[in-house]
Specification:
The structure holds two protein chains of two kinds. By secondary structure, chain A is an all-alpha fold. Chain A contains 15 helices and no strands. Chain B starts with a helix and ends in a 7-residue tail after the last helix.
């Protein structure tokens, strides 16, 4: 392509002369400065609002959460009412996504499954944070052998491929949703803990920490201040982790280690649908697409939140 | 270099020790008594239970049990499966080849697809090709292997009828036909990640000074891209791709389950589903060791390429 060759051949030419700096704007008045600061903090300058992909992800996540909350109202049928007379029916006006092997409405199961899936993913992230955040704070703040000890522990946990560790925990404590959630919660601890530690390492060098210590604040109190200033990276990571938790929980349920029938859940539906894929693909495809869309949305929203909290990305 | 290798290997020892303690200890935290599982779960006389305990060393103190387990593992003996009544080591060795074939084919597909895609995306940065590549990568990263596998079966096996859906097949070509869908499902995530990395790496090398030199001395544009930019861009990408082999091994668990392939992955799933502790312990230990060794090899390769790493 000629146009493209030209672009890189341009590297042969002299480096471009930097354009002269534009005239500095007249200095802002105090009032304008306040207004500008407010504008920069506001919603309209946020990448979350300006970037349509992030905004879309936000809407999808909101929709998923609402569907989970209002599942009983939204679902046209109960999630586990078998009707063997209409087994494996294709989509129709009565059953918009068809029915599964036991004649249950797939749409209703998908809607109720949103609740199971989302709630269990939330618990996974919650467990990982209850353990990971305090230990990350302590490791980063105190440093030294405490830091080394905690970080080596995470190295050991990271020595296991993530899902494999979850397998072992589930194998030992038995199958079921509760154990799957606890297992994944533990698996997710090292990541969040390392991120918190990284943030603390930067924060503890800042003036406010020194100031607080000079004023006689206890370590606990200073840690509280640091935690408040670390909330945005934690929120970003939690959002991304929620997506991965949905993915991994579905994997465990798919292998029959997580959610047990007849509970409606996306991963369990996928496992169920796989059994009779050749007869009717609707169960598996509906559940799989739901997982994919949710994961993409949470991932993207995580990126969007990161941009949202970054002052450099405001205009 | 020699001291670096020694140091890296020594660093592995504590990690290996603690992982083995976790793998071993976890099973002994179980609320279920393995002797009862071994006896088949139903009521058994205390004498039979005592006999079983003696046979599997379950009557000894826990530290001694651990030491016995480690000693046996170092001798390549990972115990006997509760359910299959077979030697775990030979079970692993039996199931390993098909998993390696699967992972190898997935690696091959990744390299064949991701490198050209990354190069094209970088050369045509901001153009349609780049846009399509980034969309593909985006979908690829989010799509779970178990679902892409199912979609593949629906499309290529049931709908088009080109490829078989389940099993492993006999003979080279039949086997390849059986493995191509699972490998593709496994590769999709990797293609997404690797092509993005290749693109980022290429963007750097495309604007490097040696590119300017090559073009100035009259090398054709694509000649310079492939011989100079791509070759240099490959170095970091290859090392990271090497690291992903471990993840492929775990991803293959899900893929093997989807496609009914009797590899290492299905052995793990079987073990977990049936609380077959020797299998769970043995396979986990095996995969963790493989994982660590791959990390070690990648680190050593990296140190070989970039001497600065050694002196860190």
């Amino acid at each position: 392509m000629a146009w493209d060759r030209g672009r890189h051949a341009a590297a042969l030419a002299e480096p471009p002369v930097p354009a002269p700096e534009p005239d500095p704007l007249p200095p802002l008045t105090a009032e304008e400065r306040v207004r500008e600061a407010a504008r920069r903090r506001g919603w309209r300058t946020s990448p979350l609002y300006r970037n349509k992909a992030y905004l879309f992800a936000l809407f999808v996540v909101a929709a998923v959460v609402l569907v989970g909350l209002f599942a009983p109202v939204l679902a046209p049928y109960p999630p586990d009412q078998p009707d063997l007379s209409s087994s494996l029916a294709p989509p129709s006006p009565e059953h918009l996504l068809g029915t599964d092997k036991q004649g249950r409405d797939i749409l209703s199961r998908l809607i109720w499954g949103t609740r199971t899936t989302l709630l269990s993913a939330l618990f996974v992230v919650f467990i990982s944070e209850v353990i990971g955040v305090p230990l990350g704070l302590i490791a980063g703040y105190f440093g030294g052998w405490v830091d080394a000890l905690i970080m080596r522990a995470w190295d050991v946990l990271l020595g296991f491929p993530a899902l494999l560790l979850a397998f072992v925990i589930v194998a030992v404590f038995g199958r079921g949703l509760t154990n799957a959630v606890i297992a994944l919660g533990i698996v997710y601890v090292p990541m969040i803990s390392r991120i918190v530690r990284g943030v603390v390492l930067v924060q503890r060098e800042l003036a406010y920490v020194e100031a607080a210590r000079a004023l006689g604040a206890s370590h606990l109190r200073v840690l509280g201040h640091i935690l408040r200033n670390s909330l945005s990276p934690i929120l970003v990571q939690s959002t991304i982790d929620l997506g991965y938790a949905i993915l991994d929980l579905a994997a465990l349920s798919y292998l029959g280690l997580g959610v047990q029938p007849p509970t409606a859940d996306w991963g369990a539906m996928l496992a169920d649908g796989r059994e009779y894929l050749i007869l009717s693909p609707y169960t598996a495809v509906a559940a799989g697409l739901a997982i994919m869309i949710a994961v993409v949305a949470f991932n993207l929203l995580g990126d969007g939140l990161q941009a949202h909290f970054d002052p450099k990305r405001r205009r | 270099m020699k001291t670096y290798i020694v140091r890296r290997v020594i660093q592995m020892v504590p990690v290996l020790f603690f992982t083995s303690v976790i793998i071993f200890g976890m099973v002994h935290l179980s609320p279920m008594d393995p002797a009862i599982i071994l006896a088949g779960g139903h009521q058994t006389s205390p004498e039979t239970l005592a006999q079983i305990r003696a046979k599997y060393h379950l009557d000894k103190p826990i530290v001694e049990q651990y030491l016995l387990w480690v000693r046996d593992a170092l001798h390549g003996n990972l115990g006997i499966s509760f359910r299959l009544q077979q030697d775990v080591t030979s079970l692993i060795l039996q199931r390993l080849p098909i998993s390696l074939e699967l992972v190898g084919l997935a690696m091959l597909l990744t390299v064949l697809m991701a490198f050209p895609l990354g190069i094209l995306a970088a050369v045509y940065e901001g153009r349609v090709v780049d846009w399509i590549a980034s969309l593909l990568a985006f979908i690829g990263v989010a799509s779970p292997v178990y679902f892409t596998g199912i979609l593949g079966v629906l499309l290529f096996a049931f709908h088009l009828g080109w490829l078989p859906a389940f099993g492993t097949g006999d003979g080279f070509l039949d086997r390849l036909a059986h493995l191509i869908l699972p490998a593709a499902a496994l590769a999709l995530n990797m293609v997404a990640l690797t092509s993005r990395m290749m693109r980022a790496s290429m963007l750097e090398t495309l604007s490097a000074d040696y590119m300017r030199t090559a073009l100035a001395k009259g090398v054709s544009y694509w000649g310079a891209v492939l011989k100079h930019a791509a070759r240099n861009a490959l170095i970091p990408v290859v090392t990271v791709t090497g690291l992903q082999v471990g993840f492929l091994l775990v991803g293959s668990v899900l893929v093997e389950y989807t496609f009914g392939i009797g590899g290492l992955g299905s052995l793990i799933v079987d073990g977990v589903q049936n609380s077959d502790y020797p299998i769970v312990q043995g396979t986990t230990l095996f995969v963790v060791v493989v994982f660590l060794v791959i990390n070690l090899i990648v680190d050593l390769l990296y140190a070989l390429i970039d001497p600065r790493v050694r002196y860190n």
